[in-house]
Amino acid sequence: MSFEETRREAVSQWQALQNHSKPRILIGMGTCGIAAGAEDILETLNQELDKHGVQGDIIPVGCIGLCYAEPLIEVIKPGMPSVFYRNLTSNLVPEIVRDYLIADNPRPDLALATRGKSDLQGIPRLVDLPVFKPQVRIALRNCGNIDPSNIYHYIANGGYEGLNNALKMEPQEVIDEVKKSGLRGRGGAGFPTGVKWQFCHDAPGKTKYIVCNADEGDPGAFMDRALLEGDPYAVLEGILIGGYAIGASEGYIYIRAEYPLAIQRLRIALKQMEECGLLGKNIMGSGFNFHIKIKEGAGAFVCGEETALIASIEGNRGMPRSRPPFPAEAGLWEKPTNINNVETWANVSAILRKGADWYSSYGTEKSKGTKTFSLVGQVMRTGLIEVPMGITLREIIYGIGGGIPEGKDLKAVQTGGPSGGCLPASFLDAPVDYESLAAAGAIMGSGGMVVMDESTCMVDIAKYFLTFTQAESCGKCIMCRFGTKQMLDILEDIVHGNGRDGDIELLLEIGEAVKNSSLCALGGTAPNPVLTTIRYFRDEYEAHISEKRCPALSCKALISYYIDPEKCEGCGICARACPAEAIRGGKRMVHVIDQSKCTRCSTCLDVCPPKFNAVVVISGEPVVAMTEPVPVGSRV
Amino acid sequence: MAVVPATAREVVVIEKRCEMGVSQTLQYADKAAQEAKESLISQINEILGSYEGEKASLIPILQEVQQKVGYLPEEGLKQIAKFVDIPESTVFGIATFYAQFKLVPMGRNIIKVCRGTGCYVRGAQRILEALESELGIKAGETTPDLEYTLETVACFGSCALAPVVVLNDKVYGRMTAKKVKKILNKKN
């Protein structure tokens, strides 16, 4: 079957699905949807449809990015705009089947939004929601819309048109198009993709390789996972285009073993591509041959670095080596190799389909197009988003994200994972692009964006990131191996109340040394979280060191819990819940915490009924509460 | 989930008994341990049968053995080293470099607490402490009855549902110290 025929078949199947007389229910079955309980919802849905004899199709789809609303389903009833229902529970499913599928009440109280041109009985359109309106979806264009295990869905939505266009061009023309688009590497460093391709294209040698870096290791980032789970085809199409442009006939996808669903979807997609003549020999009848293999990572953060990744594919320890030679000259098995990240590849397929001018119409002068972010932490609407470059942090956190829960204040936003930095609220109006974030001391990174409120201790967060990089350092460079350890020891001392004068200066000095004397980006960026928190939150370090006080009331060694005798009503809930048996009291007695037994686990604070709100946390001052329980009436 | 076959696990239990010098069972244990070892060797040989022995297949082989046997036994590593023609010391170096590989048997149930940033700022540390006190082991350890192994991982990429705990590859989102204990009970 030629591609044209395949496309006609795909379009007719897709249209038949759209104009189906039966209702359809799309259910978000990405890892996050499943974690939120989508499997139970799926089971209940099946039961309910059977019970009422409703004919309908249930289609599992990838993540649409509204993770805060999971489990999420989209109900498409013929003749009606489709309706999203949010935060579903098994109890609500029968109501939706009964009221909307059987009767005509769309239940606006349970609905999130409609998809399509119109709203419905006060249910807003998805594209009008504050969480969606500022977004431009290029890499994520199909996530949540298509069945990620059905290649026809992808083809019917413009899939492989980019490849089709590319194969009709000369390889150099493809590279020029990518250069013109202004696309920069989405793995974090932001190197211009077209220029990288040119190096590899120009490198002498017949055998060349393409590698897709799906070793998404930054804690707090899941863009690549969601993309591979929701639309593996967009990434694979990009890899093929890259292969054609640089003259490679073999590609590798290096993916974390921690992403089993993404691996499974990739395997299905590869098989279907072969069946459709889109992989293997003589692709689309053009004479272009290409094969793709999947390599599962074995759990080493440093393998996200390209020379370490290559070593790992070759079967060695994933340790970086010095560059040059760059992988474009001598990469996998010493052959010219081009490595790009998952999101970059998904952008490539869109660029070749719609053109460089279209792509570069989004973004800023030096940062073109869009960027996906995983918006997580203390923010109302967590999820996966894709925004045009140049959008401000404020628009992301307060517009899309809906601000900070419980009316708390934003303290910092962390971008770039353990390589990035923590920016204070004063940067809220800074544009999000490679240059602005780098100037502020953070980096764009692969797209993790963690929002932190006033309850997050900045020293503790710096320690957290350094614990990670220190453990993940491969040990090759001395400063990375020992410098991070020294810095971590100092930070441990500080959060335990053993900080000394001069510690901050020492951290800065070692941090600079680690940055300057490490081969790869792991060591080169590991001190960033420490350096930026010192730069913007130095007062917190000083409070820990000189006042032995944690302003965020977070560092266990520096805080104390006590029960306010004015507020305690003697209900006894805290005493029963305390795992350390540190609370004494009795019926209608004002309870007291034995400070010597308290492990500061915060259980009492959590369980104390909000109407009493009697548990108090303090730092840097002595507890002045009673030591013995007294009857509630007799308080002082 | 990686299920440790009874034979492989017995090797260790029995070897432990031998070390303790339980004389009554010694003779029996010797024989059983020998049989278990032989079955282990043939199990690994079977896995190796589908590979050609090129160097790049080392990590996939280790992954398959880890998955099917549940850990990388010393005998097995020697066998694999011979097969791919790489010094045992290098194979050992690679096996200890990657976090996925374990050189000791794991519990039947593996609980992983995510320590990703999203989870960390939403209280993953307290979830971990609750599990540690409930199971009586620290992160990275296995209960003496080989029922549970408690691990931490850098990030599962389910940050939007933080904090997250994974029990035998099933992801549980929006955890609390209380809910996490319930998951354990469900398993039992």
Question: Can you describe this structure?
Answer:
Chain A has about 625 residues and is an alpha/beta fold. Chain A has five domains: about 110 residues, Glutaredoxin, CATH 3.40.30; about 200 residues, NADH-ubiquinone oxidoreductase 51kDa subunit (Rossmann fold), CATH 3.40.50; about 80 residues, Ubiquitin-like (UB roll), CATH 3.10.20; about 90 residues, NADH-ubiquinone oxidoreductase 51kDa subunit, iron-sulphur binding domain (de novo design (two linked rop proteins)), CATH 1.20.1440; about 80 residues, 2-Layer Sandwich (Alpha-Beta Plaits), CATH 3.30.70.20. With about 190 residues, chain B is of the alpha+beta class. The longest helix of chain B has 26 residues. Chain B contains eight helices and four strands.
Task: Summarize this structure as a short list of keywords or feature phrases.
heterodimer; A: 636 residues; alpha/beta; Glutaredoxin; Rossmann fold; Ubiquitin-like (UB roll); 5 domains; 5-stranded mixed sheet; 23 helices; 16% strand; B: 188 residues; alpha+beta; 2 domains; 4-stranded mixed sheet; 8 helices; 4 strands; disordered N terminus
